[in-house]
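Hi R.,

As promised on Friday, here is the backbone we talked about, encoded as structure tokens. Could you run it through your design pipeline when you get a chance and send me back a sequence?
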């Protein structure tokens, strides 16, 4: 039987509260994912004086980067109170100065903020239980002409696993079933993710009204966090053979 969406969200919230320390210094802007990808693409044409919302802001490292580059204001949204706590600690001065506003909420729920120039998201959107709602919300948060840039695990990367010295297609690319990760990261907690096909992401974005102006599948730039063990999910060996991440650039 399928897990009800409220249970998925509540399990994922508990999970992120328990694993957030493991991700505190994971990929954040100017990178858009593991292995230093995306920084060289200069996807945000101008940060100075612009307003941003980050979906799934996690530990707030990307927010700090945007502030250091003179963004006018940055809103950060995340499901996990623990992540919001860490993002608040990391951006305390900017919050006191009214430049950073953090909101603990699930991305599927609409929040009330001023229209922004950019919505960004680094490795968070794929956690959603309702992408239609999320993209419709994001569209509504943007100013006319505003840009939404987001990254996530490449759809093919998740289907291929290392076994006996080689890479094998372990899951059917065509199946978009939710995956339940029991005892994820060995923290005794359950996480749920639905991996979606690339064509599904294109369709969902277009249905929400976005004009897709860029789609990137970057090759790895560097080895990060000791991911040189081929058995690891994010292994450099695997990332050299197939795209680990995709990045969409969409305009309202
Ligand atoms: C891989 S982390 C990325 C964090 C951050 N962007 C970074 O690069 O450090 C994914 C984040 O998505 C958040 N998240 C998961 N499901 C969510 C949901 N339904 N609504 C809002 N945030 C969610 C998690 O709490 C977590 O902080």
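Update: got your reply. Pasting your designed sequence below so it's all in one thread:
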């Amino acid at each position: 039987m399928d897990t009800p969406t409220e249970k998925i969200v509540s399990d994922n919230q508990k999970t992120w509260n328990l694993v957030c320390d493991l991700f505190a210094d994971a990929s954040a802007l100017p990178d858009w994912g593991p292995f230093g990808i995306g920084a060289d693409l200069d996807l945000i044409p101008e940060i100075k004086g612009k307003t941003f919302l980050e979906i799934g802001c996690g530990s707030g490292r990307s927010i700090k980067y945007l502030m250091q580059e003179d963004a006018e204001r940055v809103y950060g949204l995340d499901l996990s109170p623990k992540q919001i706590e860490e993002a608040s600690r990391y951006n305390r001065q900017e919050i006191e100065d009214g430049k950073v506003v953090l909101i603990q909420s699930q991305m599927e729920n609409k929040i009330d903020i001023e229209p922004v120039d950019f919505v960004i998201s680094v490795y968070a959107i794929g956690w959603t239980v309702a992408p239609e709602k999320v993209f419709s919300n994001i569209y509504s948060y943007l100013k006319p002409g505003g840009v939404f840039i987001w990254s996530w695990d490449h759809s093919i990367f998740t289907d291929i696993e290392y076994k006996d010295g080689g890479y094998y297609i372990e899951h059917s690319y065509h199946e978009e079933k939710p995956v339940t990760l029991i005892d994820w990261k060995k923290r005794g907690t359950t996480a749920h993710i639905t991996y979606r096909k690339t064509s599904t992401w294109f369709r969902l974005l277009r249905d929400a009204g976005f004009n897709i102006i860029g789609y990137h599948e970057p090759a790895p730039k560097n080895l990060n966090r000791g991911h040189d063990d081929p058995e690891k999910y994010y292994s450099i060996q695997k990332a050299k053979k197939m795209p680990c991440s995709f990045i969409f650039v969409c305009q309202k």
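One thing I noticed while checking it: The radius of gyration is 17 Å.

Thanks again,
M.
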